[in-house]
């Protein structure tokens, strides 16, 4: 058999297969259509109406949050967080003012000594000292604030000198290595 005859045979085979599939499709369509038109298949199924009252939530009394507050669900220790108790008046910190220094950026640093053990501490504006917050530092004192109270730390020497009317602390000029003092 030559090649052309083989191709013709394949072509006729495919045409015959297409015709058979088309016939099967028509027969299936025709019998399926009759079945759909039968009254038993067209009858609607009765579905019970749902009870919509189940969708409505029950009427709640006023909300009661005491259980949440008492059990403190959202706290790690699982206890109720009490509001802050107003603090009592604090005594002035047990420190003496030793001096202050003006930094090149315009900020001041204060040096204080604890009266009991003579340990040193450096303070900046905003630091905390025994519950007091540092509000201001100048060359002769440190101003402290705690809620509505205010206190002042002064050097014992400056305090006694100012009581007599003398000024013993004065601000020294700041020199940098770029501009040494002229002699």
Secondary-structure topology with pairs:
Layout lengths: L2 H34 L2 H4 L23 H6 L23 E8 L5 E7 L5 E4 L4 E2 L2 E6 L3 E6 L2 E6 L1 H9 L19
Antiparallel strand pairs: 1-2, 2-3, 4-5, 5-6, 6-7
Feature tags:
183 residues; alpha+beta; SH3 type barrels; three-stranded antiparallel sheet; 4 helices; 29% helix
Outline the structure in words:
- This protein is of the alpha+beta class.
- Among the domains are: 1-41; 95-164, SH3 type barrels.
- 29% of the residues lie in helices and 21% in strands.
- It is built from four helices and seven strands.
- It has helices spanning 3-36, 39-42, 66-71, 156-164, and strands at residues 95-102, 108-114, 120-123, 128-129, 132-137, 141-146, 149-154.
- The strands form two sheets. Strands 4-5-6-7 form a four-stranded antiparallel beta sheet. A three-stranded antiparallel beta sheet has the order 1-2-3, with no helix packed on it.
- The longest helix is centred in the first third of the chain and has 34 residues, at 3-36.
- The protein is elongated.
- The model is unreliable at 164-169 (pLDDT under 50).
Order of helix and strand elements from N to C terminus = HHHEEEEEEEH
Question: In terms of per-residue confidence, which ranges show pLDDT below 50 for 5 or more consecutive residues?
Answer: 164-169
CATH class call of the domain at 95-164: Mainly Beta
Q: Average pLDDT value?
A: 77
State the CATH topology of the domain at 95-164: SH3 type barrels
Largest sheet: 4 strands, antiparallel
Name the beta content range: 15-25%
């Amino acid at each position: 058999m030559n090649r052309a005859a083989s191709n013709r045979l394949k072509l006729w085979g495919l045409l015959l297969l297409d015709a058979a599939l088309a016939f099967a499709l028509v027969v299936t369509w025709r019998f399926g259509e009759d079945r759909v038109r039968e009254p038993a298949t067209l009858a609607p199924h009765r579905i019970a109406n749902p009870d919509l009252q189940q969708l409505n939530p029950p009427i709640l009394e006023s909300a009661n949050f005491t259980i949440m507050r008492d059990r403190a669900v959202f706290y790690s220790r699982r206890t109720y967080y009490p509001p802050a108790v107003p603090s009592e008046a604090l005594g002035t910190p047990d420190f003496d003012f030793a001096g202050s220094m003006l930094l090149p950026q315009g900020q001041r640093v204060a040096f204080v000594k604890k009266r009991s053990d003579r340990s040193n501490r450096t303070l900046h504006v905003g630091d905390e000292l025994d519950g007091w917050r540092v509000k201001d530092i100048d060359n002769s004192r440190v101003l402290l604030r705690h809620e509505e109270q205010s206190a002042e730390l002064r050097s014992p020497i400056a305090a006694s000198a100012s009581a007599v009317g003398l000024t013993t602390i004065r601000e020294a000029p700041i020199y940098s290595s770029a501009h040494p003092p002229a002699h």
